[in-house]
Each structure stands twice: as structure tokens, then as C-alpha cells.
Amino acid sequence: MGLEAARELECAALGALLREPREAERTLLLDCRPFLAFCRRHVRAARPVPWNALLRRRARGPPAAALACLLPDRALLARLARGELARAVVLDEGSASVAELRPDGPAHLLLSALLHETRAGATAVCFLRGGFDSFQSCCPDLCSESPAPALAPTATETSSSDLRVPIYDQGGPVEILPYLYLGSCSHSSDLQGLQACGITAVLNVSASCPNHFEGLFLYKSIPVEDNQMVDISAWFQEAIGFIGKRNLRGGD
Questions:
Q1: Residue pair 50/72 in contact by the 8 Å Cβ criterion
Q2: 3-class DSSP assignment, residue 32
Q3: Of the N and C termini of the chain, which has fewer Cβ atoms inside 10 Å?
């Protein structure tokens, strides 16, 4: 299916919708930019769309399978199928129209799958003209950025810290999104630190780090080590699905 049926939405129009609580609740905003770009800055209401070499191959299959790859949240797919959302809005970095989208890119594939799978007339499938760059200029109050990097420690701080502790184990988990923290195995064993961050769920990507507090937190274990010898991309969809469900329920 071509993209002619996709509506092109102006940034100001999307901003007006997101400022109305009822319309914002019925708007699904899907960000197709690279995940690191999303982490640095994004529309607060947006969801990141997973994209890697494995998903690129799967997304070229039947529309239903493509949509399941790009939107791994089953509850969200069910809402789309029932026509509960007024609109699904796809955005990229800065494309001015759907005509500029690469046929093998995530935005094009996602729009095509949405047009094919959403109930006719129930959910409008839209593309944001100008992408995130234009929207941030138009509606900066609706966008968020990652926290500024911490300043380098002073000589006094360095001398007072335990130099035997690896840098990645010092301090606490780092907030990379309003609902997502990145930490080490050591951080995951610090109950007080986890509770101070308001964390309710832990995605444990390790073959050796235990789930320290299974009675207190929801855990998802992915038993691989993050090193150059292991292909962790096969686990991306499962991990993103777990994170997405916790975000939908208001957890960290």
C-alpha cells in the first residue's frame, strides 16, 4: 500500500492536540529517529520505535508482522485494532513530507503497516511535517532533553573516592529518560539507591548478575553479556517491550 492515505500534520496542529488532555490521550506519537537521538531530546508524549538490522529484515514482511516488530507493545496494538486511538502520528528527524521518506526506512515502513492494519476511519494515520527538528522549534515546551552531563570531579572529590571502584559503579543509576535509568550490577544491588530513584522494575541484561530483590521489584532477565563477542540485537524487541509496558503503566 502506498502512503497517499497518510495525512500530513503541521507541527502547530500537533502541538494544539497535545495541549488538550483528552486529545493527547487519544494520540499515539511514534518517533522513528535513532534511539540515542531520542534519548538526547524528544517530544515528551512520544514513544521510540525500535530499529536495527534484524528488525529491518522482519519489517519487510507482511504488514501485521511488520507492525508487531515496530510496535512490540501488545496492549497498544490491541488499542489500535479496536480503534480506540484517534490518530497515530509518525515523525522522523526532519522530513518535510512523506514523499521524502526512504522506502526502506522505519518511518515509511511504519506508516505503510499502520495504514494497512488500522481500522478504516477509526484511527487517522499521520506524518509530522518537518519532523522533530521543526516541532522542537515550534513547541519547545512540549519537548524534553536528557539531563546535562555531570561536571568532572574536582581533585578533592577524586582523592576522596575509592579508586578501586570502577567509574561505572560509582554514584548511582543515570536517568536517561523520565522513566528510564541506566545502571550497573553494583547499582542493582543497592536497595536504598533503587528506591531513592523511584524504580519499580529492573531489566537485568547479564548472565551473572542476580535479581537481588525479586520480592520488591518486577524483573526481566536477559542472560547475555554486553561485549563485542555477543550479538545482543536479538533481544532488543523483548527488552523494548518490557520497558514500554512499564512506561505505559507509569513505572520506572
A1: yes
A2: coil
A3: N
Say how far apart CA 106 and CA 59 lie, in whole Å: 8
- In this structure, the number of other CB atoms found within 10 A of the CB of residue 161 comes to 13
pLDDT digits (tens, 9 = 90+) for 65-101: 778 777 877 888 888 888 899 999 999 999 999 999 9
Which residues, including other chains, have CB under 8 Å from residue 151's CB and lie 6 or more apart? none
Residue found by looking up cell 511488520 in the block: 66
Cell digits of residue 30: 511514534
Residue type, 116: H
- 17-69 per-position pLDDT tens digit: 999 999 999 999 999 998 878 888 899 999 988 776 555 666 666 777 778 77
CB 95 within 8 A of CB 107: yes
Residue indicated by cell numbers 524487541: 237
Break the chain into its structural domains and give their ranges.
Answer: 7-145, 172-248
Q: CATH classification of 7-145, choosing from 3.30.70.660, 3.30.70.20, 3.40.50.720, 3.40.250.10?
A: 3.40.250.10
User: What are the cell numbers at 74?
Assistant: 501488545
- The string of pLDDT tens digits covering residues 201-247 is 999 988 888 999 999 999 999 988 656 666 777 788 888 888 877 76
* CA dist., res. 9 & res. 126, Å (int): 6
Which H or E run includes 219? strand 218-222
**3-class DSSP assignment, residue 65:** helix
Distance CA 188, CA 212 (A): 7
Q: Which three cell numbers stand for residue 236?
A: 532488543
- List Cα–Cα distances, 150 to 8, 146, 153, 175, 247, in angstroms: 39, 12, 9, 12, 25
